[in-house]
Design goal:
Layout (H helix, E strand, L loop, with lengths): L1 H36 L8 H11 L1 H21 L3 H15 L4 H18 L2 H17 L3 H9 L11 H19 L5 H14 L9 H9 L7 H11 L8 H17 L2 H17 L7 H11 L6 H17 L3 H91 L4 H48 L3 H8 L4 H19 L3 H6 L18 H10 L5 H8 L3 H12 L6 H9 L10
Length: about 600
């Protein structure tokens, strides 16, 4: 009766624990989903990670750029010859042309004045072309057009013709963009100047590949050769970051886009943007702007990066300053910002839903813990009763063994009485059968008891996490699971081998000679023999055996499979043979 009551309470504890453990993974899943809402969409490729790193370190690049400019200014202050001063002012304009528009204008005007003072017409034209390029880049298109119209193309040296046609392409590209449409007369003039530049630019010109790619872009010409040369140039050992390298990477990306290779399009667009950031190019960040649009993808892409990139472009345009460029970037920023805000609002709604769900689960979890603590307290009292029952059961087992001996003695005394002997033998057979079933039952109960004690210890660990140390100490000071388990297994081995003393030898007779299982010194049975001892007692379910031996069902399955592979008889007959090993008659009962 007491044992049945104990089993009832244990099953209740197991029920509540099962529900508790089911709630934990659900809570974890919700937590992971909640954390995932704030995570970026997917892992970034290496080239995007490199670009992010460059943007994060942009301040350091600007400091290096500023140091180089200051060094040129120191050299200019010590220059004595007009030619040297012109060279240094031209270099300062080159540095400032992509870094600071006001300073760039100052030094191009100074460079132009020095060229005119020296009477060097080639330097005068070079400075005029540079200033026109600067005016176009800052959005002063009318001024740039007027300056280009003032230059007599026929008077230009051959070395400056590529710069002239390049400026015209740049100017009419901007005019066409501001005019709108895909085929206005500005774009037609741009096309004509593209044809012109290809007739004068030499292959050794650093910009030859750029203009060659630009000439192919938008046409049905085969770009494979130019793509190959651009890649070879950009990936060559010792390649250095420069404005021309950024332009080459940009045109290569556009050629890949035209070919439909979107992966390489993104890769080289990011490469171009990274170079622009690393050389502190504040005037023209077209590649980063376009990459922001790629990331945005109509609101379905990496909005976080798109928002970061377009803000970086806007801040650079304002710092340059280039008001025309800033207005154009602001239009893109508005769309990306709207998508960014909408995405954040959706995430906020999802987060709110998850938080509500977690609060509900937390309430259920708290209630479950409360019920478990109550049942735990009841189980404590039942455990004391169970201990008394186990002691009584142990005494009964000893008495049963004594009775068995008395029956054997009586059997010897009554040999002469055939009928009585037959009846006694039948009684003895029946007693042995009941004993066999009873021992398996008793040990199964003991195993479950140990399992429950283990679960109680886990619950006590939970109390320790809650710092209920007094309660934990009070409940655990008398527990010694390992000693109980060892004693339990030793009792099982002793009783089993008392009933089936030849079991080990009989079992090994089913195995290959060189693969017999022999217990270690001091052991009666080991784990493998104990598994098949339980099978001999009629317990064949791996889950029940695992509970008895305190290991996983997979471990039981693996051991059974390993031992079965050593068998000298067919594997499908192995279990049935084991069940007939060491019969009680053979064991001396």
């Amino acid at each position: 009766m007491k044992s049945t009551l104990h089993k009832t309470y244990c099953s209740k504890i197991g029920y509540y624990l099962k529900n508790l453990f089911h709630l934990i993974p659900v809570t974890l899943i919700i937590g992971f989903l909640l954390a995932g809402c704030s995570r970026r969409s997917g892992d970034a490729p290496d080239y995007i990670a490199q670009l992010d790193d460059a943007i994060d370190n942009s301040q350091q690049y600007e400091e290096v750029k500023t140091e180089g400019i200051n060094e040129l200014k120191r050299q200019l202050s010590g220059a004595t010859t007009p030619a040297h001063r012109y060279l240094l002012t031209a270099m300062l304009f080159g540095e400032y042309s992509t870094f600071n528009s006001d300073s760039a204008l100052k030094y191009i005007d100074l460079s132009l004045r020095l060229a005119r003072q020296s009477g060097n017409n080639e330097n005068v034209y070079r400075s005029l072309l540079q200033k026109a390029d600067y005016l176009t880049g800052t959005g002063l298109l009318n001024e740039a057009r007027a300056m280009m119209d003032s230059i007599n193309k026929d008077e230009l040296p051959d070395a400056l013709l590529p710069d002239y046609y390049g400026n015209m392409i740049y100017l009419y590209s901007h005019l066409g963009n501001y005019a709108g449409g895909n085929d206005n007369h500005f774009y037609q003039k741009e096309r004509a100047y593209k044809d012109s530049i290809m007739g004068v630019i030499q292959r050794d010109n650093p910009a030859w590949l750029w203009y060659s790619g630009l000439d192919i872009l938008g046409t049905d010409k085969d770009p494979s050769e130019i793509i190959s040369q651009l890649r070879e140039k950009l990936e060559a050992p010792g390649h250095r970051d420069s404005r021309q390298a950024a332009m080459d990477a940009y045109i290569l990306a556009k050629l890949y886009e035209q070919e439909g290779d979107m992966e390489n399009y993104r890769k080289y667009m990011a490469h171009s943007a990274r170079i622009d950031v690393s050389i502190s190019n504040m005037r023209e960040l077209s590649s980063l702007e376009e990459l922001a649009s790629i990331m945005y993808q109509g609101g379905n892409g990496d909005i976080d990066r798109a928002y970061k990139y377009i803000n970086f472009c806007l801040n650079r345009a304002i710092a340059y300053p280039n008001r025309v460029k800033a207005v154009g970037i602001s239009e893109r920023l508005a769309s990306i910002s709207q998508a960014f805000l909408e995405r954040n609002m959706r995430q906020e709604q999802i987060t709110r839903g998850f938080l509500i769900a977690i609060c509900i689960l937390a309430a259920v979890l708290g209630f479950t813990i409360f019920v478990i603590i109550r049942q735990f307290r009841r189980l404590k009292h039942q455990s004391e009763d169970l201990k008394e029952s186990n002691d009584s059961l142990h005494d009964n087992i000893i008495e049963l063994k004594e009775l068995h001996q008395n029956l054997n003695e009586a059997n010897e005394r009554l040999k002469q009485l055939v009928e009585d002997l037959k009846e006694k033998n039948e009684d003895l057979n029946e007693s042995n059968y009941v004993k066999e079933e009873y021992i398996g039952y008793v040990f199964s109960i003991c195993s479950k008891y140990i399992n429950h004690l283990s679960e109680l210890k886990k619950l006590i660990h939970v109390q320790m996490l809650k710092k209920n140390y007094d309660l934990v100490y009070k409940e655990t000071e008398d527990f010694d699971m390992r000693s109980d388990l060892k004693e339990f297994y030793n009792s099982f081995d002793t009783v089993f081998l008392h009933i089936y003393p030849d079991f080990v030898d009989d079992f090994n007779s089913l195995l290959e000679p060189d693969k017999h299982i022999v217990p270690k010194e001091g052991e009666l049975l080991n784990t493998e023999l104990r598994i098949y001892a339980l099978i001999r007692l009629g317990i064949t379910d791996s889950v029940k055996i695992a509970e008895f031996l305190h290991c996983s069902p997979q471990t039981i399955y693996n051991n059974r499979f390993k031992v079965r592979n050593k068998s000298v008889i067919p594997k499908d007959e192995f279990i049935s043979k084991v069940k007939r090993l060491g019969s009680y008659a053979k064991a001396g009962t």
